[in-house]
Amino acid sequence: MKDKEFIKLKNGIAIKSVVRIIIYSLFVILIFAILIDGVYNDKLANHLSQMDRATYLWCVRNKTLLMGMFFLVIFTIVSFIIIRNSNHHFAEMIMAMDQILKEPEKEVKLSNDLVILESRLNNIRVDLVANQHRAKEAENKKNDLIMYMAHDLKTPLTSVIGYLTLLTEEQEISKELQAKYTKIALDKSLRLEELTNQFFEITRYNLQNVPINKTRIDVSFLIDQLVDECYPMMQPRGLECIVEKPEHIYYMGDGDKLARAFGNLLKNAIYYSYENTQIKIEAKQLEEKIKLIIKNKGDKIPEYKLEKLFEKFYRADESRTSGTGGTGLGLAITKEMIELHGGDISVKNEDEWIEFCVEL
Q1: In sequence order, what are the residues at sequence separation of 6 or more whose Cβ sits closer than 8 angstroms to the Cβ of residue 182?
Q2: Does residue 173 or residue 245 have the better pLDDT?
Q3: How much of the chain exceeds pLDDT 70, in percent?
Q4: Does the N-terminal or the C-terminal CB of the chain have fewer CB atoms within 10 Å?
């Protein structure tokens, strides 16, 4: 509370208390004077004279002193009562503070004398609620980010397992393919280590925002890499990936983030494609922008569910997620990565073709 407001509040309470003490004291003294020195004066004098003549004469001689003492006693009693009753302001303030702590959503109400304090306490209450919401939102962001990282840990791990499985199960495999699969498995293992380190950094420092580091990247080369990495996931289901793109598409962006985004889209297409069908990828340069389209054949998705596909933890229905073990985070991560680059992502479903379109 500002000093001027606090001083004004204190002075207001003090002035009202003094005024009440004076008014009530004068009122009581006036009543006392009328009754003792007026209406009942003769009766009291006669009664005291009959009881003790000496005391009666002393009272007559010291009448002014006695009246002053009576008035002082009355003033003291009235002051005590008013000051004691004024202490309910402190009780109000204590109760108001307890209410703010226990029920911050409820508005604070105080007596008229404490209007300024009531306004200030309500401002504090509103700030407290806002801070609580911000703290909760920050905690949710942290938890979401950790969950995103945990989700991304599965991607390189899947590739490592897939290529190692190929090396183990394929009886006749050329040395060139062995070397290629071994290198991919090693690269993905290193990527897994990098993501694990990032995961521990997030846990340690309680990070809330994902940094973006832009460099000049070749999107065409990035797409080729992702298709190669996902080959072990496509082979068991008889899927074929058809890619249409120029030899080079250059873009200023974060290659790691875009790889995560495009990889999630490709994995999504693999998970939800009919067996023995094609996945089509089309990439092209549009002046200063690039456009990427990933299409696959799968169960038709109702229009109202299409709008929710990018929501965290949303899974369209059991038929689309059965056996995938998905958490509903992949497309949400993709959307965030694309929007970090100032891009846009959309989805449409025509007949059996499900199409995701990214513009950067």
Answers
A1: 163, 167
A2: 245
A3: 78
A4: N
